[in-house]
Amino acid sequence: MGTEIPLLEWRQGRAAHRRRRAVAALLLVVLTLLSAWRCNVDFHSFATGIGKGVSLLELFFPPEWSGVSEMLQPIAVTTVIALIATLLGMCLSLPCALAASSNIAPRPLRLAMRSFIALERGLPEIVQMLLLVAIFGLGVIPGLIALSFSSIGMLAKLLADAIEEIEPHMLEAVEATGATRSQVIRYAVIPQILPALLANGLFRFEFNVRAGVILGAVGAGGIGFIMMTAMNSMNYQRACMATLLTLVLVFVSERVSDSFRARILDGGALR
Amino acid sequence: MTPEVPAAALPSRKFRFTVISLIGAIAVLCLLFAFLGMTPASFGVDFRFVLDVVQQMLPPHLPLLWNQKSILLSLVDTLAMAFLGTVAGGALALLLAFFAATNTAPHRLVRLLARTLLVANRSVPQLIVVLVLLIAVGIGPFAGLLTLIFGSIGMYGKFFADTIEQADKGTLESVESVGGTRLQTIRFAVLPQVMPSFVANLFYAFDYNLRAAIPLGVFGGGGIGFELAFANGLLHYKDVLAYTILIVVMISGMERISDWVRRGILTQPMATR
Question: Which residues of A touch B192 (CB under 8 A)?
């Protein structure tokens, strides 16, 4: 038998629930209308835009198949940038995460590291990219640094949260054997967060491939740059070829990262 | 009888494995760097040059924020893009997800079509979408908004479809057995089950879209990203730094707020209707 609720209380609860829903719905509508006004949402320009977009997409076909051979190198550059940024991010996020978790690091260090991570997470890659281009000039390096930095930010936050969730008993058990702090980290912390590090790293790789295409367009090279220049010079068939290759790259990286992640989360790869 | 220790679990083997994989990782990293044509020297920068740029950036031109009303408005534009992109994209993703999930799709062919659409949508690079839309609907926040909607559909449609497929079968069958139509089944058996996950993910989507709205602005999609790219093009580094600070504050602040609202909504008791 369920607990019995007096009728009056039930009615009041229901009325309050409805009131809350009405307020939430009203808020949603007001915010939506306000956003629509700020974004110049205009169904007329949308309708004409569809026509324009379709006639533009017609210019995309047929794709410039002859461009494939020269685009393989930029595709590889984008992939390699994403790969290096992910690897660097994974390696460097581990010490950052250790320094940011409350059960390992002393308070001042933890606060400093947490605010550093928050800064990295709040700074979009493209903003870092624009600032770094001012320092390093156009090229692969600013893109690599921007992607590595934001990889560190994301991975360190997730890892630090994972470390803080480790059962205190585990740490105490290793400490009780007389282990030093570094031994505690080696034998109690790292084995527990390794799956999280690998799984999130794979996820981040997929993200870095997508972000690398965008950074390429503002000067990091790779396939994004090809796409941007092709669009700017109205060479739409070339842009189409670049898009198709990027599509394949994104699709494959997603599949690879998905399948590895599934294997890691099953626990098979780590034993 | 002593239990046999598998050879792979011996400490010496484990140590050897660690060392070999470490060396392998470093070698791969070196090869990758070599592929990009980089040597350690290429990371060395002329330090005077860095100092020069930093000097040009400091102090950030913060008075700009209250002297120039358009900056705050462009901030509002970015927030509006992210909000509307999340709401509209989420709604469309949910709609498509019902067509793509095995237990709610009207027909197998429809399901196949919806799934293919979602996969294609996920893989199309955002860059080409925004570049095409800029030509189609013109420069401004509307193009950025449409790109965000497009991206949100791809990102969340598949996820929602998977969530719907995991919905409890018994509930669906019980509504069907009292004569509920397909729409009624969705309304009374599926929606209540998927709604909490749907709402929680929309808050994450908002955070993601807010970050994604900045590069879209740089390419001409409006909002603060556009102002940033403009100031950067003019080499007004003091303004660039001011915008950067503003962006960091906005993103971190909105993350806190959306976290707080999400907790408030999801822990609120679901009273009986």
Answer: none
3-class DSSP state of A222? coil
Cα(B238)–Cα(B221) distance, rounded to whole angstroms?
23
pLDDT of residue B1: 56
Give the CATH superfamily of B64-265. Answer: MetI-like (1.10.3720.10)
Give which of B123, B128, B219 is closest to A227, Cα–Cα. Answer: B128
B50 inside 8 A of chain A by CB: yes
C-beta atoms of A214 and B232 within 8 A? no
Amino acid at A240: C
Rounded Cα gap, residues A49 and B135, in angstroms: 8
- Asked if residue A31 belongs to a domain, the reply is no
| Phi-psi label, residue A235: left if phi above 0, alpha if psi -120 to 50, beta otherwise | beta
Chain A residue numbers with beta carbons less than 8 Å from the beta carbon of B272 are: 10, 13-14
Whether A6 is in a domain gets the answer no
Q: Which chain B residues touch A78 with a CB distance below 8 Å?
A: none
CB nearest to A123's CB, from B215, B218, B248: B248
- Which residues in chain A have Cβ-Cβ distances shorter than 8 Å to B43? 141
**pLDDT tens track for B26-65:** 888 888 888 887 777 766 666 677 777 788 778 877 777 7
Is-contact B208 B198, C-beta < 8 A? no
DSSP H or E segment with residue B261: helix B237-267
Q: Is A73 on the interface with B (CB under 8 A)?
A: no
Domain of residue A85: give its range.
64-266
Which letter does DSSP use for residue B190 in this model? I
* CATH (domain of A147): 1.10.3720.10
Query: Span A168-194, mean pLDDT?
Result: 85
- Quote the number of domains for chain A: 1
The model scores a pTM over 0.90 = no
A47 class by beta-carbon count within 10 Å (0-12 exposed, 13-18 middle, 19+ buried):
exposed
Closest approach of A103 to chain B, Cα-based (Å)? 23
Is A53's Cβ below 8 Å from some Cβ in B? Answer: yes
The one-letter amino acid at A118: A
**Mutation for B interface: A38, A60, A228, A233, most B CBs within 10 A:** A38
Q: Do A247 and B125 touch (CB under 8 A)?
A: yes
SS3 of residue A206 by DSSP: helix
B267 pLDDT tier (thresholds 50, 70, 90): low
Please report where in the chains the tokens 């050879």 appear, as a residue: B7
| CB spacing of B119 vs A210 below 8 angstroms | no
Of the listed ranges A108-122, B29-43, B108-122, the one predicted with least confidence: B29-43
Q: Decide if A11 is inside a domain.
A: no
